[in-house]
Amino acid sequence: MSRRARRKLLLHGLGSLVLMVAIGWLFHNSLDKDWIDHSVRGQGLHGELVYLVTGGLAVAGGLSRQLISFLGGYAFGLGTGFVLALGASILGCAMAFLAARLLGRGWVVRHYGHRIERIDAFLHENPFTMTLLVRLLPVGSNLVVNLAAGVSRIGFLPFLAGSALGYVPQTLVFVLIGSGITVDPVVRIGLGVALFFASGMLGLWLYRRYRHGQSLDRELDEAIEEDEPEAAA
Q1: How many CA atoms lie within 13 A of 122 on its CB side?
Q2: Total structural domains in the chain?
Q3: At what angle do helices 127-136 and 105-123 cross, to 10 degrees?
Q4: What are the tens digits of pLDDT across the range 197-206?
Q5: CA nearest 51: which of 65, 38, 39?
Q6: Against a cut of 0.85, is the pTM above it?
């Protein structure tokens, strides 16, 4: 893998992780965490449902699923937080996909028409596997992929299943970081950084191996293509 691809992965990953740690610090040292503490954390099944529905709506509307996962880790700890954060991400993915397919095709085409054909071509031959690959990549917009897939030829169930499995690594990473804000922060954040980098490298390797000439991200393609002559040599 080229230095440019590795640098892009590293910068994107570190930027996201630094943002999550900063948000965690603000939560732990200010009154901004009151809503989570009073409405979600320690509220039993009611708090879990509030988090799941609110998180799903937030992801469907374009809020970072990494942030939702971070908040799940903070509110519920590693185990329950992971299950609920993954559920919220899947719910948000489904809502955005179905909203585009059933209600908002015209709006999506106007705003993202230049990306729809590329995403459709990349996913439609093997939607489950290629969607899984896309979700493992450390680049791209979750919302744009959901909306573009919704107005493409891709089937709902393969897309949702591939997304669900592909969400697992980053969900685990950010739930782990969120749960570590109050417990073992150095260990958990350090482990989160390592896991994020490893999952991103896996995604890039799979993308390079299985994209078969299709393009999802032009900058990523250029970085990978720069390295191909070196690999051949």
Answers
A1: 25
A2: 1
A3: 100
A4: 777 777 777 7
A5: 39
A6: no
